[in-house]
Amino acid sequence: MPTVSSEELAAAAGVNSAKLRKDFSYLGSYGTRGVGYDVEYLVYQISRELGLTQDWPVVIVGIGNLGAALANYGGFASRGFRVAALIDADPAMAGKPVAGIPVQHTDELEKIIDDNGVSIGVIATPAGAAQQVCERLVAAGVTSILNFAPTVLSVPDGVDVRKVDLSIELQILAFHEQRKAGEEAEAQAVAEATKDSGKGPDGDVPAVMPA
Ligand SMILES: NC(=O)c1ccc[n+]([C@@H]2O[C@H](COP(=O)([O-])OP(=O)(O)OC[C@H]3O[C@@H](n4cnc5c(N)ncnc54)[C@H](O)[C@@H]3O)[C@@H](O)[C@H]2O)c1
User: Primary place of residence (predicted)?
Assistant: First the structure.
C-alpha cells in the first residue's frame, strides 16, 4: 500500500506540513502517525470533495479553432469530464465529426442539454454571440459556464461563470518581464556609478588604487 507523509506532500506543494494536515482533516483524512496517508484513499477523498468521482457531461458551443482544439484535448476525460456534444451555429458544420463527435446545430441546443443532463457548458463562440448562447444554455438548465469569449457574461443567481483569458495571463508575464528589465537596468546603473567613482559597492576605497 503506497503511502506518503505530510512532510513529503507539504514539500512538494510548498506549504507548511501542519497546515496540510489540518486541511486534510477537513476531508476526514487522518494519516497514520509514522506512516502517512494511504495514497489511493487520499486521491479518492480529494476527488470526492472536488466532485470528480462522478462523470460530468460537458457541451462545447462554438466549434471553430478553439472549440475544436478543446474537443480534441484528451485530458478532460481523465478528470471526469465527458464531452457530451459539440454545438455550432454554422449549418455547414452540422454532422461533421470533430474529435470523433459529430457537430450538432444550435437549433438542437435545448434538446441536447436536456437529453444529456448537462450542467456545464463551454462557450467558444465569437464575443458578440456569447451572451445569447449563455442565456440559451442557462434557460436549458446549464448552471456552470466556462467562458473563453472575450466578454463579460451576465447570468442569474445560482449560475457560476469562470472566464479563461490567455491574453491576461500573457499580460501578467509581460508585467513581470518589464519589472525584470527595470531591475536589470537599475543594477547596471549602480554598477556603472560605483565603477566611475572608483569605489566599491559599499563606498569603500579599493585597497589598490587604479593607476
Ligand atoms: N480566452 C482565451 O484565451 C481565448 C483564446 C483564443 C480564442 N478565444 C476566443 O474564443 C472564441 C473562439 O475563437 P476561435 O478562434 O475558435 O473563433 P472561430 O471563428 O474559429 O470559431 C467560432 C465558432 O463559433 C461559431 N459560432 C458563431 N456564432 C455562434 C452561435 N451563436 N452559436 C454557436 N456557435 C456560434 C462559428 O460558426 C465558429 O465555428 C473567440 O471569442 C475568441 O476571442 C479566447
Answer: cytoplasm
